Amino acid sequence: MLAMVDRFARYGLPLHLTETTLLSGELMPAHIEDLNDSPFTDWPSTPEGEARQADEVERHYRSLLSHPSVQAITYWGLTDDGMWLGAPGGFVRADGTPKPSYDVLRGLVKGEWWLPPTPMRTDADGRVRVSGFLGEYAVTTGGDAAVFSVEGRHATSRCGSGEGRGARCGAGGSLRRGSAVA
Q1: Separation CA 140–CA 148 (nearest Å)
Q2: Domain residue extents for the chain
Q3: In Å, how far are 5, 14, 77, 167 from 55, measured between CA atoms?
Q4: Domain 2-112 in CATH: superfamily?
Q5: Cα 44 to Cα 110: distance, rounded to the nearest angstrom
Q6: What is residue 10's predicted lDDT score, i.e. its pLDDT?
Q7: Burial class of residue 42 in the structure, from the number of CB atoms within 10 Å of its CB (0-12 exposed, 13-18 middle, 19+ buried)
Q8: pLDDT, tens digit (0-9, with 9 covering 90-100), for 35-91
Q9: Is pLDDT at 172 greater than 60 in this prediction?
């Protein structure tokens, strides 16, 4: 997957991966050339398939989230109910119960990757080191605010109304992806 992402990243545009589906049942036989010729009339999720799907979901999202060119990932089908060709590709079974892949993705997003508001103290120079994902962050202190973003390997900042009065503004320079000084 990352080789394909690297191939398109060379154009310098943000990448959006859409309509991802990872199956939790039998995989489509290799000899089927047109998915509309699917041999399945009933395509159930299986315990082995659900374990495989959970592993693939974790590897898929970790890989894509780690690539600086990937801006969006769209998964196609939250639930098995109504999936194209009746494929068992959702994070939730047709009866509404979550599969292991649901728990894995929720654990990544709401557990490992979730960044709640975090009280921090400045260093002697009035700066705060921040580690996080690429994107925008807000720093507030009292009534002052600054917004900065981590993009690629650089951080940029925009100061709020209290520029220079407590919230130090001016993150910048060459930084590791995922960290900044504000």
Answers
A1: 11
A2: 2-112, 129-181
A3: 20, 26, 18, 43
A4: Glycosidases (3.20.20.80)
A5: 28
A6: 96
A7: exposed
A8: 888 777 888 999 999 999 999 999 999 999 889 899 899 999 999 999 988 899 999
A9: no
